[in-house]
Amino acid sequence: MLACDEARTASWRDARARFEKATPEEQVELLAEQARLTRLDVLETISGANLGHIGGDYSVTDLLTTLYFGVLNVDPAQPRWDERDFFVLSKGHCAAALYTTLSHAGFFPREELPTFAQPLSDLNGHPNRNKVPGVETNTGPLGHGLPVAVGCAYGARLRGTGARAFAIMGDGEMQEGSNWEAIMSAAQLGLDNLTLVVDRNRLQQGARTEETNALDPLDEKLAAFGCEVRVIDGHDFTQILAALAPSTTGKPVAIVANTVKGKGVSFMEDRVEWHHKVPSAEQVEQARQELAGA
Amino acid sequence: MSTTIDTVQAPDRTATYDNRQAFADTLVELARTDERIVAVCNDSVSSSNLKAFAAEFPDRLVNVGIAEQNMVGVGAGLANAGLVPFVCSASPFLTGRSLEQVKADVAYSQHPVVLCGMSPGMSYGELGPTHHSIEDLSWLRALPGLDIVFPADRQQTAETVRLAVELRRPLFLRVGRYKVPDVTPAGATLERGKVQVVRDGSDVALVATGTLVSVALDAADLLAAEGVSARVVNAAWLAPFDEATILAAAAETRAVVTAEEANPSGGLGAAVTGLLAQSGPSVRRPVRVLGVPTFAPTGSNAFLLEHFGLTAAGLAQAARDALAEG
Known about the structure:
heterodimer; A: alpha/beta; Rossmann fold; 5-stranded parallel β-sheet; 10 helices; globular; B: alpha/beta; 7-stranded mixed β-sheet; 5-stranded mixed β-sheet; 12 helices; 38% helix
């Protein structure tokens, strides 16, 4: 199990304190800068490992950044603190984005990122809660995260901690029936402390979602299953922050976050091959320049 | 416990008891003083014997409906939130339908979920192989980090429930459907990773699990009448496996028979034969492996046990065959 980077956690606490006092415009700037740093580290992590899922990492980066730098009630120094909010990245193949975000909050040292996917590293290609602090459950096979988040949300209610539970699924992942089982349970249990987010980048591994097993109208489906649905631009921090606010209806919140796979690097955006392609040296350099200028 | 039980009293086997009732009563009793205990089920409040739990703790029973993948995931989430979940379902569906959840969310994640496989083996005789759970022991023994327990009687069932709460680790508890007699000797208590010798003997070792332990004791009686001394081992705790007691049983007898109401290809039979095969000449013994190696034909549970030789006569004959070979 990796250990907390206390210095970085202290910086993260300062950043969270600044965020709380900032104006909405300043909050967006803080999150955008943090997301830019995360995309840069993801680029280095994946090119160094020569594997990863950079397209999905970049579609989910702004969501992850907003959660960890603006919303989640967690403590990187006490990752299993029993009153924490719960976050589950169900699309576990986007581990590089999660690892980078966690390391930037000090859950473990950022210096570990270059070990991603190396022999015996704690940073497996998919996240492991027994090796990486901040990971709530092991994901990788799709359709697993949301049921676990439902259990976390109900557990928090039973224990009266006031904690919330969040899960992010890929949109292709919504083809897994277990997600819809979980949504039915969440609605039946009235889990207003649960927020599920669909990273709607419209691409799955092999093709567009709508050419594979169409999801639209996803918002209507989620509403029909009993959710309070919020459809947003998943790269607009103002909209993300608003959507991550608690339920107003007593129902679980479902966010359809319209995103762009490969967001932030021009030649990756909305291209199916960047699901798990690894950039060449020239492409890494170009991506660095684009992200530096962002 | 020691391999000799001369000093303990073997219980009377004329009366039979429902292990499911022992499970349900113990769970309710513990839940009264331990608020962490919750139950999760799949529309199986009745068949999982959770009616009393539901009546007393309505908020602590999560019935997810007919949705086993979600059921196991919810259990993992509840465990992650600090609760002690007992996830209850008919064993074929708990282990088959949600096998990947058992693997990833429970065993690999090491969430301390107690998976309760109700009515396993061929309990639902006439309903056929879709509703039988002969594969569960093989599937689950392949998962690292998951304890597997198949109690033989009401005392072991209650002890497993209590121990599961104390251990706080991933555990599969297989709860038999039909009534069985008491087999646990007076004074014996269940220990994690230990199997119990419930009758001493020096000619043949009968290693049985769960509902077949009392059958093995009956077989030992048949053999005793012929002058054959059978040791009976109650292999309730199937993973981690008590290799020392099994090896001693083989070393101190001349033949070994295993019996389980499951497919032995990955179950108790595989555990014992694999162990003996790797453990040198002192335990090289003729072995007979009894179980349910094929999808069963139509018939009641009692008929099917007979069909597969999982009776006192069947075990005794297997013992004679093995001894004759040696």
